[in-house]
Specification:
Two copies of one chain form a homodimer. By secondary structure, the first copy, chain A, is of the alpha/beta class. Helices cover 29% and strands 26% of the residues of chain A. Chains A and B meet through helix 1, helix 3, helix 7, strand 22 and strand 23 of A and helix 1, helix 3, helix 7, strand 22 and strand 23 of B. Chains A, B: Keywords: FAD, Flavoprotein, Oxidoreductase, Redox-active center.
């Protein structure tokens, strides 16, 4: 059996190693276009700041090790230029010598990854510009920085790579402007959760421009569609990627209109004995049944492994993908799993959303923090569809739990029932996941009604009754303009101050006290709504708007933080 | 509806608040024996070190707040001395005035918690001694410390409270000896995982004595069964707890022989309209169907809430409990979920175990660390039964994921399929959970055979072939005496150095390379076994044995740590 693998990073390298484990006698050849195999693409941005100090550590394996450890023939600088799936051959060009050779295969694994998209911007040649997808890319960036000592750099693109590039440039002391064409950074969460990340970036000195596009470049200058000009010393382009599948033209391997490889549940392409993995393929979404690209290291590794199983005649069980991700932005971490609202729009799935900001660890412990949380679930069934978390603590552990719950088709009621590890340095007696599960269960069974925090603006403008049930000391420290303060501690005695003929919208700091008061008001005959997300989410929204200098409602008075941390409801143990 | 709640901490307070949310008009009275309601018992040890600085912050709520916020009548210093479930009355003694009153109830919630066990040790009165279960307990400890400035204290008991007490005393600069009667500390994990915690405690200056018991106390002295005497200034007794259920004698509420309250799936006791929650009840184990006590804050809170649902006529869904826990021991964190081997012994369930020590985050990132992992699963079905993790990183997130998987009756194969959040500061492309899932799947389907790391001792004594496939530089830095070094990079070429007529036992640092080589040897006709846990687990075992000064095999040469961190297998990305 002769197995050829195209691509020597995540999916390819995993397929190669597993093929060897399953068949000691197979001939395995792995071709990699670039000069190195199996490098840590996810760590590349961290070399810019020096967090990953040495460039050579970014390379995880080399051809010698592949040979010695796995008896795998790994060939670098080897660009596969065509595949003939009828003849079962590939043509490979040695990018150093230019020599072209033909290799026969019994099974072919295609894991070519994706290339950076670099549009033909006018004037691009007049400015130092770099991508950040490969070890040579980061090498060039480091040479530029060391030789030119730039004071300011511009990052184009607010996805994973752009965000991590911006953070690591800033950690190096370089001023950074990040430009994003859509209306939010951190595309794997919804806009309302991206606020927290954007605010953290700005607090750490990154200028962020959203809803604007690069029009052109000039010497030390970026010119935006809006007319705005940015003086800058260099540019990192992290606009997006396209699958590196040009060599599959006329191969018999079917691609979609954007060049992604179509595979079946066995990761087999439309060509016999040709399998594909990684950033260049379309996987099936477990929740929607729709194909989508998922450029993540974990899934690529898994696909490589499963293809090796398949080539060796084993059955594989492909349940589809949901997508999980996390990003560190200075002291804030943002994690997500499953479907976002953005992704749900086109699916026709009827869903509901809850927001909460429970404490991540016991409130009296040092380092206590809130976990800004959003949970999305299917209406009526309560089936969990997705979740997003932003916090100075550990959003990844909450997203991981919910990812597991989604894989198991659990409902919001199941989340309330989970037994999660607790000790004061790690969490709270009822974890964030339990709490969002409780809130969603209550909402789903109709125990209370809610409006989103983002609806508060309109409610206030139209003169609706918005009641802030935090204690007076909190209200004085900071509140939403137009909200009337009737503390939870006296609301039962002051019901006559409310207009029973109109709806009552109740908020507190995080939504927990206002939930209690919403139920109390309902029991007393009021048409009561909890403001999901409450003061904390409105505050984050306002902070982001203050950076964007437009659409700002400016409805906040003061800023309440510390005093609220002492409140009993948040010291749960 | 008049609802009486006995006990004002986790279960009781949760039941009270939820009862109010579900019925604005109910009369709710909560009786608490102690002087405070709703305190953070889990945070008590952290006040000793000053991590939780102010004693008053340990108290989360007070009767005034219960009244103002929830319209709940919370009465402290109110000791319920009897329950008459026929008459639906309780008798309450005011512990300040001695006055006894009778109260009628429509529904009764019993959540009395547990008391510290204090055996009648000879001479106990001659030494300053304290428990650590209540706010007054910790008050007394703090007064003792401030007035006497002790140089050395002794903690009796190696469970949660004893361990946290020892850590926090040490953080205060006090020398500590911890005495544990069984053969291990950290009872919620198996002995082989407790090694890591014991080693960390000793590294931080806590003397640990296991398999010895307190015989008697004397002035400034602890006398052990072994004859050993310890000079000490004071003692904290954290030996265990017994349910505080004496007042239920003749109440109609059935207890087991140890005083735990029996409840049905609705948390109803054997007496009509009497429900029970928290540390004093027996819950049903989801995996074994057996009743067991589970003294944890999260389950207590949940039970209180569900009882409130039940009292208000709602159906509840009790799927049973599995138990999850975590403890911080200086820089090491230990987490567990589900069944341990100790618990499995008496169940008759056929199970298998895998060990691994994969990296917790990408190996080239600062702060990289290993996650010592143990996964337990049912033979053949692959159903997950339990998991234990010890690491300087985040064991809780791995245990939480597996806890969720157990709740969903997942198999080890499902673990391999999970999509967990990854970015270099948070994990690796294949997470620890995926990896233990892969290993267990392979073992369960018979792809390879293994022996446990603890079996290496006997194998070496009987002269078996034990092969260390780490590279020479690692072997030279430290190895197991008697293991023969044939590095993975040359093993294929040196097969003739092995005796094919005898089994070959293969180890590396963490079990990953040796797994590859076990498969290679098998393919070449050898009877090969992977040493599960490999060098890292043997090293931890030896370190613990060096502290216990007995049963030590002394089979380690040197200590290999840093060099191995650079190995490519552990830089997975």
């Amino acid at each position: 059996m002769k197995i050829i693998i195209i691509g020597g990073v995540a999916g390819g390298a995993s397929a190669a190693a597993r093929c060897r484990r399953l068949d000691e006698n197979a001939e395995i050849i792995m071709f990699e276009r670039g000069p190195v195999v199996s490098f840590s693409n996810c760590c590349l941005p961290y070399h810019i700041s020096g967090v990953v100090e040495k460039e050579e550590t970014l390379v995880l394996m080399n051809p010698q090790k592949f040979k010695m450890w796995f008896n795998i023939d790994a060939r670098v600088n080897s660009n596969v230029i065509s595949v003939n799936s009828n003849a079962k051959t590939i043509q490979v060009e040695n990018t150093v010598t230019g020599e072209v050779t033909t290799e026969h295969y019994d099974a072919l694994v295609v894991s070519p990854g994706a290339d950076s998209v670099v549009p033909l911007f006018p004037g691009l040649e007049k400015i130092d510009n770099y991508c950040l997808k490969t070890v040579p890319d980061v090498s060039k960036i480091m040479s530029f920085i060391k030789e030119n000592n730039p004071k300011h750099m511009t990052v184009v693109g607010g996805g994973f790579i752009g965000l991590e590039a911006a953070e690591n440039l800033r950690e190096r002391g370089i001023d950074v402007t990040l430009i994003e064409g859509t209306d939010q950074i951190i595309p794997f969460v919804d806009r309302d959760m991206s606020y927290f990340g954007q605010a953290e970036m700005v607090r750490n000195g990154v200028e962020i421009i959203i809803e604007d596009l690069v029009e052109a470049f000039d010497a030390r200058k970026v010119i935006l569609k809006s007319g705005k000009e940015i003086e800058t010393d260099g540019v990192i382009l992290a606009i997006g990627v396209k699958p590196s599948t040009g060599f599959l033209k006329d191969s018999g391997v079917e691609l979609n209109e954007r060049g992604y490889i179509k595979v079946d549940d066995n990761y087999q392409t439309t060509a016999k004995d040709v399998y594909a993995a990684g950033d260049a393929i379309l996987v099936t979404n477990q929740l929607t049944g729709q194909p989508f690209p998922l450029a993540m290291a974990g899934p690529a590794n898994k696909q490589g492994r499963l293809i090796a199983d398949r080539i060796n005649g084993r059955k594989i069980n492909n349940k589809g993908y949901i997508g999980s991700g996390v990003v560190k932005l200075f002291d804030l971490n943002v994690a997500s799993t499953g479907l976002s609202e953005k992704m749900l729009v086109s699916t026709g799935i009827e869903y509901d959303v809850v927001y909460a900001a429970p404490p991540g660890i016991v409130g009296i412990m040092p380092g206590n923090h809130l976990v800004y949380s959003k949970l999305i679930f299917e209406k009526d069934t309560g089936k969990i569809l997705g979740a997003q978390f932003a916090t100075n603590g550990a959003p990844d552990k909450r997203a991981d739990v919910i990812s597991t719950a989604i894989k198991a088709s659990m409902t919001v009621e199941d989340l309330a029932d989970l037994e999660l590890c607790y000790a004061p340095p790690f969490g709270t007696g009822k974890d964030v996941v339990n709490k969002v599960g409780y809130i969603a269960s209550n909402l789903n069974e109709g125990a209370f009604k809610q409006v989103r925090f983002s609806e508060v603006y309109d409610l206030l403008e139209t003169g609706e009754q918005v009641i802030d049930v935090r204690e007076a000391i909190e209200y004085e420290a900071g509140h939403i303009k137009g909200a009337v303060n009737i503390p939870m501690s006296s609301l039962r005695q002051r019901l006559d101050e409310l207009d029973k003929t109109k709806p009552v919208y109740v908020h507190c700091r995080t939504g927990e006290r206002s939930y209690n008061m919403t139920l109390m008001l309902k029991a007393n005959g009021f048409d009561a709504y909890n403001v999901a997300g409450s003061y904390e989410f409105v505050k984050a929204y306002e902070e982001m708007m203050s950076y964007n200098h437009k659409n700002r409602k400016d409805i906040m008075v003061g800023n309440c933080t510390a005093c609220a941390g002492q409140l009993a409801e948040e010291k749960s143990a």
